[in-house]
């Protein structure tokens, strides 16, 4: 199991949104994913629309087995949730000399059951974040494209050096507003300072905040949105970067059955935010998109198909019909 801390000392930069949508995307690709919330705000459970009976508090303070405290959030996607009780855990944990290693040790007990764990950190130098950084081999840093972003990443590097664990594997610019010239300048600055680590930006997209407010992933809420496309691309990047492969052979997949050849890959271009995302889907996405021979059950028009992050979505352009399924099936 690869353990990845999703962290930034700055608040509200898209850590939880990234954890949910990268985690869900990896699960849709057939990987077995564990999401871990170490933030007492408990946003991960809310964003996934689940109500956990047990949380990380019980693992760290009561010594319960991780396996007993998990919630099955989606197929291939489990959650070790947090809530406000986690604030009480911190003073209790630090009475123990091994407090910093409790989370890492707990996660090791379920390591054989998952391909990857993503830990959603809080925006602070808390005991819980320290435990998360010690538990993680890899660090993913979502960062807003703004003036103080570079300073925030430098602080995080200092913290990682002090902890002596975890390597920053990628920096994900979030809430990128392509209409603002300053955003392009700041992105260039970020890419110049951290060449090779900075991924394609996640554009600002109201669908992402709607999705988490409704307890849905972006692929469930609006798979054709630019938020879904941006996160689907990040999922592909992260799985290649970390060498993540499903450990069990997946059932035969025929993602393009009945379709014309997929559109050729095009160089990436940002849609100005004033344009509707659905206006030019085929031109924007390198993912499989096209018209199928299957008629819509509602209006008999041919269904459209998109394949992203391991998810096959068939939808109708004329009515509101939409069907989603895992390309590689459910593994558990
Ligand atoms: N690309 C985006 N476009 C528009 N809104 C976004 C985007 N990414 C995140 N948001 C919204 O911004 C807000 C903050 O995002 P999120 O909760 O993921 O940040 P965070 O870093 O986890 O915050 P915290 O530090 O409080 O844990 C949320 O309302 C979320 O829905
Ligand atoms: Mg958060």
Overview in brief:
By secondary structure, the chain is α/β, with parallel strands linked by helices. It is built from twelve helices and eleven strands.
Query: What do we call the CATH topology?
Result: Rossmann fold
The low-pLDDT segments are 248-287
Number of E-state strands: 11
CATH class: Alpha Beta
Bound molecules: adenosine-5'-triphosphate, magnesium ion
Percent range for helical residues? 25-40%
The topology string of helices and strands comes to EHEHHEEHHEHEHEHHHHHEEEE
Kindly, what is the distance between the CA atoms of the first and last residues, rounded to a whole number of angstroms? Answer: 17 Å
Inertia-based shape: globular
CATH superfamily: P-loop containing nucleotide triphosphate hydrolases
What gyration radius follows from the Cα positions, in whole Å? 20 Å
Estimate nothing, just give the exact number of structural domains: 1
Strand adjacency order, main sheet: 3-4-2-5-1-6-7
Structural class by sheet pairing and helices: alpha/beta
- Going by CATH, the architecture would be 3-Layer(aba) Sandwich
Mean residue pLDDT: 84
Profile the largest sheet: 7 strands, mixed
- The total count of helices amounts to 12
């Amino acid at each position: 199991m690869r353990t990845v801390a999703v962290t930034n000392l700055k608040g509200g930069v898209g850590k939880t949104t990234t954890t949910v949508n990268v985690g869900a995307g990896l699960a849709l690709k057939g990987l077995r994913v564990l999401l871990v919330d170490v933030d007492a705000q408990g946003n991960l459970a809310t964003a996934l629309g689940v109500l956990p009976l047990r949380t990380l508090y019980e693992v760290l303070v009561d010594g319960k087995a991780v396996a007993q405290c998990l919630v099955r959030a989606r197929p291939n996607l489990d959650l070790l949730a947090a809530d406000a009780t986690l604030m009480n855990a911190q003073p209790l944990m630090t009475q123990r000399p091994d407090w910093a290693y409790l989370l890492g040790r707990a996660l090791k007990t379920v390591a054989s059951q998952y391909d990857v764990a993503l830990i959603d950190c809080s925006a602070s130098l808390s005991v819980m974040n320290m435990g998360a950084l010690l538990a993680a081999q890899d660090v993913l840093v979502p960062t807003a494209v703004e003036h103080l972003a570079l300073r925030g990443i430098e602080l995080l590097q200092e913290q990682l050096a002090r902890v002596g664990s975890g390597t920053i594997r990628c920096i994900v610019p979030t809430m990128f507003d392509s209409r603002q010239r300053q955003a392009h300048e700041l992105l260039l600055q970020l890419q110049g300072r951290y060449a090779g680590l900075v991924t394609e930006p996640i554009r600002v997209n109201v669908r992402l905040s709607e999705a988490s407010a409704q307890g849905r992933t972006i692929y469930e809420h609006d798979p054709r949105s630019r938020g879904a496309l941006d996160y689907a691309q990040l999922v592909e990047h992260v799985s290649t970067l970390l060498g993540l492969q499903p450990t069990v052979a997946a059932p035969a997949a025929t993602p393009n059955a009945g379709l014309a050849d997929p559109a050729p890959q095009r160089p990436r271009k940002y849609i100005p935010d004033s344009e509707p995302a659905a206006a030019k889907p085929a031109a924007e996405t390198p993912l499989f998109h096209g018209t199928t021979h299957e008629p819509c059950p509602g209006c008999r028009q041919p269904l459209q198909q998109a394949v992203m992050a391991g998810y096959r979505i068939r939808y109708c352009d004329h009515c509101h019909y939409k069907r989603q399924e895992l390309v590689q099936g459910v593994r558990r």
